Amino acid sequence: MKNISEQKNAVPNSADFNTNGLRQCIGGISKKIFSSIPAVAMISAFTIGGLLISCQDKNNQSNQNNKTEVMKNNQEQKEGILKAIDLYVESGKKGDGNIAKPAFASTATMSWSENGVLKSVPIQVLFDGFSAAEPMEANYKLTTLDVEGDAAIVRIESQFGPDKYADMFTLVKDGSDWKIISKVYQVKK
């Protein structure tokens, strides 16, 4: 163990502090450190460091591959989900409830609040309403799409003719298709 006076000599005082002094100081400290470490320990340290860097590079490459796969899967999921939403809007546009049927689970429901009272009906009511209506201009804007595994939540701003809606859908994956199991809407004023 060095005594205090030896430690003070290892660092230049402010009067000596210039570029050459700094180099000499660092060089002297480096020589003391490396001369006190056996060569085998230094080689081991460099080898382990190299292996860690190599492993990190492989992990980064693996993570990049995983991110690419997730992005690909997410895009496929999004396309499948939006296919169901597109069928719903197309059904209203053409005035044909049968177009929407493949997008919905047979047990799906449609819910809304009317004068502060919850209303909930089987989805067949929506199909019948579309079929009873004349074809009309219809479109939507996606505002939310959240997917977790085989479940998804979608929110759209839609317009059927002059009427505007906020539509919320819950979807579940059924085989390779996404099925809407719940439609909740709010008429926008």
TrEMBL record:
InterPro entries: FrzH/put_lumazine-bd, NTF2-like_dom_sf. Coiled coil: none annotated. The chain crosses the membrane at residues 33-53. This is Nuclear transport factor 2 family protein. The keyword S-adenosyl-L-methionine does not apply. Keywords: Membrane, Transmembrane, Transmembrane helix.
